[in-house]
Design a protein that fits this description.
7-stranded parallel β-sheet; about 15% strand; two-stranded parallel sheet; alpha/beta
């Protein structure tokens, strides 16, 4: 047995944060969490996730916003994390139209605080969450990490793209190994109430109609949360190394020519039509949905689809869970949690 590693996870009481912490604890890490328990969605759900994690003695958490000046600097100084997984962010495409300042504070200022703390107390590897929304107006599918990503369509996506650039500069200047991962529509038990699957399940169980955007002409690369966490766990042990020269970078690798920095897609690489996802919910609940067909929402994109070849070449892993199986697990959790 080697020495116990310490992981610092921001957004630890969030949907992905919860499953990430659970996995790291199971693998013998000491885990330090930070989460503001913001009220963007039901904080009670976050508290319940946090309470589950606190049953493990190797887990501790601070409930503060990451943008609090000096908070992360102090955490890094005290805990000296080996691995940092940065998941805390103001999420959601739609909400970034109503409340852009919250994205500025959490995503830009918060990530700056994290990078400054890492500069002072360098971890072995930092893994930072980005988003498939970074691909923006790209219409060529599937999305590959080496594509140009200059045309984000929401302020949320713009802040995440900025995080990629900010982290690259720190990786280059201070030799900090950074992996940025772009998530593709993550779903599963304990999921976020602002996501389509949660909204559909809730509405259908209440006998209410569901809002189907772009008349259902949407494709999403739905990625089951535990598949995502498996990929993150494997990427921890695959930190990027600054290349000796540009010719050393393999084709299809997004490794920076000047820094130990890389961006990796984590997606199922099997896009699903929105109608098929709704059918999976109908199937799991035994209820037929009443559809309220709506136009496309501002800032949204009609399709996302990940090329997962880079993830596979780095880790040997590609997410596998089928949408019907994943939806079944979510609806079972939902019924149990809300006692319906």
């Amino acid at each position: 047995m080697g020495e116990q590693r310490t992981a610092l996870v921001t957004g630890a009481a969030g949907f992905i944060g919860y499953f990430t912490c659970k996995r790291l604890l199971a693998d013998g890490f000491r885990v330090v969490g930070i989460d503001s328990l913001s009220d963007y969605y039901d904080p009670q759900l976050k508290r319940r996730r946090q309470a589950e994690l606190l049953q493990n003695a190797a887990f501790r958490i601070e409930n503060e916003p990451i943008e609090t000046p000096g908070l992360l600097m102090q955490s890094f100084a005290d805990e000296k994390p080996d691995v940092v997984i940065h998941l805390a962010a103001q999420a959601g495409v739609r909400y970034s139209i109503e409340n852009p300042r919250s994205y500025l504070e959490s995503n830009l200022v918060g990530t700056f605080e994290l990078l400054e703390a890492a500069r002072a107390h360098p971890p072995q590897h930092m893994l930072l969450a980005s988003t498939s929304s970074a691909y923006g107006a790209n219409e060529e599918m599937p999305y590959r990490e080496t594509m140009k990503t200059d045309h984000q369509m929401s302020f949320y996506a713009a802040t995440k793209k900025a995080n990629e650039a900010m982290a690259h500069s720190y990786a280059h200047l201070f030799d900090l190994p950074v992996t940025m991962f772009r998530f593709f529509t993550v779903y599963g038990p304990w999921g976020r109430p602002d996501m389509a699957l949660f909204k559909f399940t809730k509405a259908m169980l209440n006998g209410d109609p569901i809002d189907v955007y772009n008349h259902g002409e949407m494709m999403r690369d739905f990625t089951y949360v535990e598949d995502l966490v498996e990929a993150i766990r494997r990427l921890i042990d695959a930190p990027p190394v600054r290349p000796e020269n540009r010719d050393d970078i393999a084709e299809g690798d997004s490794l920076s020519p000047v820094a130990p920095w890389r961006v990796v897609n984590i997606g199922n690489s099997r896009p699903v039509q929105l109608g098929d996802m709704i059918a999976a919910v109908e199937d799991a609940l035994g209820i037929e949905a009443k559809r309220n067909l709506m136009p496309m929402q501002p800032g949204d994109v009609p399709a996302t689809w990940a090329d997962a070849e880079l993830l596979k070449s780095l880790t040997g892993y590609v997410p596998q869970t089928d949408i019907r199986e994943g939806v079944r697990r979510f609806t079972a959790w939902y019924r149990d949690y809300y006692r319906v």
